[in-house]
């Protein structure tokens, strides 16, 4: 009997295993990352660390690349008490630098390198890109609200102390007012970085949110 890759790691990925198998055979089943030496030069990981990361990535994503639906399923495992789907959507878009609906190992490891071992400036630039949902180079209040609400939804109702329903909006009002220094209704990259470095409360909050990345 023909076997079917019905799971990615321990996750069911499709009720139609024949279709998945055909797609894998036709597309990225033989995908290999760029030379590890090149990734070692581009990231803050050693070659040995990259090999370990690649084995883990391949274990969850045998095709060598992950689409948004699978990414959401994997991410949801870490937040069983909340709804991580929207935050995973925004996070996937930030990882998917080519905006082609697929995150390869290179995309994953470049982002991880910044988040885990980047400078403060690099981390803030990456976080700005996450909040800049429409990628127009600015953050407006609606975008900030969408991200913050997605984080609160993901943390779930089991947070302590219990959060009020309007907590995300209050959070955004305070932070946006501090960041929008010239009061033009948008936050630029420079305003974002300057505000974060000036205000310990903002920086602590971002470090808290960093834990969910």
TrEMBL record:
Keywords from the UniProt entry: Calcium, Cell membrane, Ion channel, Ion transport, Membrane, Metal-binding, Potassium, Potassium channel, Potassium transport, Repeat, Transport, Voltage-gated channel
Main location: membrane
Compartments (UniProt record): Cell membrane
One GO CC term on file: voltage-gated potassium channel complex
Stored PROSITE patterns: EF_HAND_1, EF_HAND_2
Cross-referenced Pfam families: EF-hand_7 (PF13499), EF-hand_8 (PF13833)
Similarity-based family: Belongs to the recoverin family.
Protein name, entry field: Kv channel-interacting protein 1 isoform X5
Source species: Pantherophis guttatus
């Amino acid at each position: 009997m023909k076997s079917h890759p019905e799971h990615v790691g321990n996750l069911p990925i499709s009720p139609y295993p024949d279709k998945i198998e055909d797609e894998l055979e036709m597309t990225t089943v033989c995908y290999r990352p760029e030379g590890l030496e090149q990734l070692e030069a581009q990231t803050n990981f050693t070659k040995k660390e990259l090999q370990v990361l690649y084995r883990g990535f391949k274990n969850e994503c045998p095709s060598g690349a992950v689409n948004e639906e699978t990414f959401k399923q994997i991410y949801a495992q870490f937040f069983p008490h909340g709804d991580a789907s929207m935050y995973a959507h925004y996070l996937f878009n930030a990882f998917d630098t080519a905006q082609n609906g697929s995150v390869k190992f290179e995309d994953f490891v470049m982002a991880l390198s910044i988040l885990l071992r980047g400078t403060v400036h690099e981390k803030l630039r990456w976080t700005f890109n996450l909040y800049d949902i429409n990628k127009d180079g600015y953050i407006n209040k609606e975008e900030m609200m969408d991200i913050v609400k997605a984080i609160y939804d993901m943390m779930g109702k089991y947070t302590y102390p219990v959060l009020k329903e309007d907590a995300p909006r209050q959070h955004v009002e305070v932070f946006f007012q501090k960041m929008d220094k010239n009061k033009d209704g948008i936050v630029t990259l420079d305003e974002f970085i300057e505000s974060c470095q000036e205000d310990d409360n903002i920086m602590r909050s971002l470090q808290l949110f960093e834990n969910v990345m």
